[in-house]
Amino acid sequence: MAVVGVLALQGSFNEHIAALRRLGVKGVEIRKPEQLQSVSSLIIPGGESTTMAKLAEFHNLFPALREFVEMGKPVWGTCAGLIFLANKATGQKTGGQKLVGGLDCTVHRNFFGSQIQSFEADLPVPELASKEGGPETFRGIFIRAPAILEAGPEVQVLADYPVPSNKFLDSDSSTEDKKENAEEGGKVIVAVRQGNILGTAFHPELTADTRWHSYFIKMSNANVGEEASSSSLVPAEVDITSNQQPRSDLPIFQ
């Protein structure tokens, strides 16, 4: 089975590796360009995107990361990782930040607001459920989360989330983009796939539901010509439809 690399500059890389371990898959920390040569797929975790970009630049990782994507190897970006993979990002800090690119979309960096406006929501995920089974929804954890405002014709939307139209008008994207998005029913895209690139605006690694990780592993196995079967994937015995302890939810975004 292919080894999955997890960019380990900052953010929730340990949580991704733990989720992979629950599926019987080896995840390795990636901090240097040459380490990418030992993995066939890569997860770019959530964290603070500006800090991650500065560290990636310090370690001269951007050329290697871009080459990894251009070679068609599977890459999954969660939250900050999604921003990294976008071809265009708005709402950035003064001076902006470098992007890896490859995903034909425009991402708003902090669309849902600051840290205290983090939330959880049940997202309809028909594609994920059809491929991985389980409930028709996924409990998305959004922490100072981005959102995809525009996606190209080759981008498959895997999940979206309804927001008030005035939320678009509060964002700092262009006036034309604001009007267009506000007229399209007040939804933003929060999960996509384009070829071998997967992106989620939320944090699957912070839940007990490993279906997104399983979905990505199968992308990775298909890329190296392996058949992802029940013998090669060993899911954890986790009941994702119930909780033994009361769940302390973050507020649902309104």
TrEMBL record:
InterPro entries in UniProt: Class_I_gatase-like, PdxT/SNO, PdxT/SNO_CS
Stored Gene3D superfamilies: 3.40.50.880
Keyword NAD in annotation: no
GO cellular component: cytosol; glutaminase complex
EC class: hydrolase
Keyword vocabulary terms for this entry: Glutamine amidotransferase, Hydrolase, Lyase
GO biological-process terms attached to the record: pyridoxal phosphate biosynthetic process; pyridoxine metabolic process
CDD domains: GATase1_PB
Domain of life: Eukaryota
UniProt protein name: glutaminase
Native organism: Arachis hypogaea
